[in-house]
Design brief:
Elements lengths: L3 H15 L4 H19 L16 H13 L4 H20 L26 H8 L8 H16 L3 H5 L6 E2 L4 E5 L5 E5 L2 H14 L21 H14 L8 H16 L2 H8 L4 H4 L1 H17 L3 H13 L1
Antiparallel strand pairs: 1-2, 2-3
Helix pairs in contact: 1-2, 2-4, 6-8, 6-10, 10-11, 10-13
Length: 315
């Protein structure tokens, strides 16, 4: 028999002493496994409220997953919860307290994929057409950052890791190292090249002599991701750009606008550095949603049909 609390306490000690897990990670394990224990204690399987982990089967875990999903827990949270249960049972098996892991092979329900937030062309023009002085190094740097992210669809991590030699000025191209250390070559638009030219004229006044980073902070060292996020947000507020603006939203906007103009999903996949085209396909859903909005507003009978349906639903 593997009693509830004793087995859990042993597992938490193992995570803390042998695995050296942080306090935050331990807290997550306690919360997730405590949720499972509470569920089992109130089940008909253990009328006395004392959980015997060795009696748990796959069907009990499936019922638990179905229950937390009905309670509103999302797919990613359930996936993390299942990972905690699998780790717990792996420990119990190692200790000889159970013969099998009932959570193996059980999948979390898929969460509906949220469509990425983008800026339309007017919003981007409002953000990028800044009258910030061309002699202010910080403003020039910020302009170059914004233009480059939107021009080439960069991830934030890719942007801050750029060095001076990453840019081929003659070819107006950019070599970046993306996820999985995969390199890709990206074109740079005319506006972004102009912004980079202005920034490089002023970069030396900020950068330390030995610093090779393309974008530097006021301290003269490579700019951090957090600094970029704050500066993008600052620029958006200065320009009164509608909605929350962050670096990845510019990347989303780049992808959406490229796909809308070209219709070439494979090319957009290459530009974004997606290993799986299904990741890029989210932008086709975004484009279709835009088309549906246009249709609903423009088609003479579309709005009426939607209105009738709403009336019918109200009945």
């Amino acid at each position: 028999m593997s009693s509830g609390n004793a087995a859990l306490d042993g597992f938490y000690t193992y995570l803390s002493s042998e695995r050296q897990y942080s306090r935050h990670t331990l807290s997550n394990y306690r919360r997730d496994l405590g949720r499972l224990q509470d569920y089992l204690q109130h089940s008909t399987l253990f009328p006395d409220g004392k959980v015997d982990w060795a009696r748990i089967e796959a069907k009990h875990i499936r019922n638990f997953v179905a229950w937390v999903h009905r309670e509103g827990l999302g797919g990613k949270s359930i996936q993390r919860l299942l990972s905690a249960i699998r780790s717990f049972y792996k420990y119990l098996h190692r200790e000889g307290l159970v013969k099998q892991n009932p959570a193996l092979g059980i999948q979390a329900p898929k969460s509906p994929r949220r469509l990425p937030q983008t800026l339309d062309v007017d919003q981007l023009n409002q953000l990028l057409d800044s009258d910030a002085g061309e002699t202010d190094p910080l403003e020039c740097r910020d302009q170059a950052i914004l233009e480059l992210i939107y021009s080439s669809g960069l991830r934030l991590s890719e942007l801050v890791s750029l060095d001076l030699h990453s840019i081929d000025w003659q070819e107006a191209s950019l070599r970046v190292v993306g996820k999985g250390s995969k390199e890709r070559l990206l074109p740079i638009g005319r506006k972004a090249m102009q912004a980079l030219d202005l920034w490089l004229d002023l970069r030396d006044s900020m950068a330390r002599p030995e610093e090779m980073a393309l974008f530097v902070s006021q301290r003269g060292t490579r700019i951090s991701s957090r600094s970029v996020q704050l500066r993008v947000d600052r620029r958006a507020k200065m320009q009164h750009t509608q909605g929350k603006v962050y670096p990845h939203r510019l990347r989303h906007s780049f992808a959406s606008h490229m796909l809308e103009s070209s219709g070439d999903l494979r090319a957009v996949q290459e530009l974004l550095g997606h290993s799986d085209i299904s990741t890029t396909q989210i932008y086709t859903h975004l484009d279709f949603r835009h088309l549906m909005d246009v249709y609903d507003k423009a088609h003479p009978r579309a709005h009426k049909q939607s209105h009738n349906k709403a009336e019918k639903d109200d009945d």
